[in-house]
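Data deposition worksheet. Section B asks for the primary sequence of the deposited chain exactly as it was used as input, without tags or linkers unless they were present during the calculation. Section C holds the resulting structure in token form. Section D is free text for depositor observations; keep each observation to a single sentence. Incomplete worksheets are returned to the depositor.
Section A, Depositor: J.P.
Section B:
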Amino acid sequence: MVVRYLTGDVPVLAERASAVIDAEEELWITSEVVAEAAYMLTSVYQLPRALVVDHISAFLRKRNVTPYALDKGLLLQGLLLCRSGQVSFTDAMVWAAARTAGADVAYSLEEMFPGDGLEVRRGA
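Section C:
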């Protein structure tokens, strides 16, 4: 639904998505949906990462859109880490979840995993 809303692709589906998303009803979105939308927009639609970050961020700033179990500000901050392409959308979602939970440590084998506010442990 998010991809249809942001792209307008398949007009009848985009209209249905807009009818739901632009209504006043509160909508909850998971980090998995955000990461999947980012993946679809960058890979299938081949949009530049910076543009994808901008559009998903604008979507998340809608008053009726609430991230499930994530702080909206941290989720938006995580997305900004993705603009350069060095941090994956999935790692940004994990980072936002760890920060939302108040974690001090995150474990990742990814060298580019964001360490802002976290100690990143890479294993032995």
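Section D:
The chain has one domain: 2-121.
The mean pLDDT is 97.
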